[in-house]
Amino acid sequence: MTAVFPEISATGYVQHRLHAPDRAWPQTNCYVDLWIEALASLGVAPEAMLGFTLTQDFEGDQFTFFKVPLEDLERLYGVVCTELALYDTVEAHVVTQLGRGRLCLVEMDSFYLPDTAGVTYGIEHGKTTVGINRLDPAAKTMEYFHNDGYFALSGADYEGAFQHATEFGLRWIPYTEFAKLPASLPSEDDQRTVARTLLAQHLARRPQTNPLATFHSVFGTQVAEVAERGLDFFHLYAFNTVRQFGANFELLSAHLSWLDATEFAAEAEAAKTICDNAKTTQFTLARAVARRRFDALATALEPSVAAWEAIMTGLSSKVG
Fold it and tell me: What is the dihedral of CA 53, 243, 110, 102, to 10 degrees?
């Protein structure tokens, strides 16, 4: 069975340190998490790509679902990622691309992904992205990057993931990308040089208004409305707000420490403050919803508001 990274397997796979269990947010979102593991398997530093986290904004109802720009992957690592047009079965296209040494990123239903056991597997349907490293349609087996690790599925899960029970012409067509990997890899010094340039560019693209302050101004009102819609809705709200900015800024902290732990020490610490404040705010939010008492939320995000300003001011003087 052809694999882009033949040396790895779902048994004994060691996840990247950005997904270590002692981190505040060991999982961030499916797209960034997938790239962290895939790039580590390629042999480059995933930390180099994380400067784009500076651009996260509050979008009125949620924080930006942060995703690495594809042009950053090309500039940093020589990885060219683009959309894969599907006119045959997903499996047929993936097998072709795997044979050419290309990693395929496919939207799938997490209902059929065993690594989401206890969350969505066999419980509810949800859209997520996986990176397929091995695929054997005859044996109905697949190995894939997803979230914070590398996993395998087979049998009925395979059939569900590829919609075998649905007639071909009626199947949902998933958005699919494929990544062309470079013949040679850049050195870590080269990655740092490019990453610093990208950091300055992303800093120039940062929100013009502090997104944590904007969110803070509507937080209490939103939570009061969330409390009326039950526990399941609360989890969706928390994932798309406090979890998104908490995970985003933990990655920014890691990026700045990797780039230069001495020069960016203050900004990395401020980013970690936002990360930790998001974690405590999530617990405060849960208690507020359960008790229908929202007074504790009035000042909950103040540390994050101040830390965002400190990050942008510090970086502007150093790379702006």
Answer: 20
Token output for 75: 């500039």
| 289 — pLDDT class (breaks 50, 70, 90) | confident
Which tens digits make up the pLDDT trace of 18-34? 999 999 999 999 999 99
CATH 3.90.70 domain locations along the chain: 27-58+67-180
Q: pTM of the predicted model, to two decimals?
A: 0.95
Distance, in Å, from the CA atom of 307 to the CA atom of 275, rounded to the nearest integer, reads 10
> What residues are paired with 103 via a beta bridge?
179
Task: Look at residues 60, 52, 49, 50 and name the one whose alpha carbon lies nearest to residue 209.
Answer: 60
Q: Alpha-carbon distance 81 to 35, whole Å?
A: 11
The vertex-32 CA angle with 30 and 33, nearest 5°, equals: 60
**Helix residue ranges per DSSP H, the chain:** 30-42, 70-77, 90-99, 155-161, 188-204, 211-226, 230-240, 242-260, 265-291, 302-318
Local confidence band at 295 (pLDDT 50, 70, 90 cut-offs): confident
Selected from 3.10.590, 1.10.760, 3.90.70, 1.10.10, the CATH number assigned to the domain covering 27-58+67-180 reads 3.90.70
* 223 backbone dihedrals φ, ψ, rounded to 5°: -65, -40
**What does the alpha-carbon distance between residue 156 and residue 114 come to, in Å, rounded to a whole number?**
11
Q: How distant is the alpha carbon of residue 294 from its chain centre?
A: 30
94 token code pair? 């993936």
Helix boundaries (H) for 86-209:
90-99, 155-161, 188-204
Place of tokens 């040494």: 101
CB atoms within 10 A of CB 231: 10
pLDDT recorded at residue 183? 95
Surface-to-core class of residue 61, CB atoms within 10 Å of its CB (0-12 exposed, 13-18 middle, 19+ buried): exposed
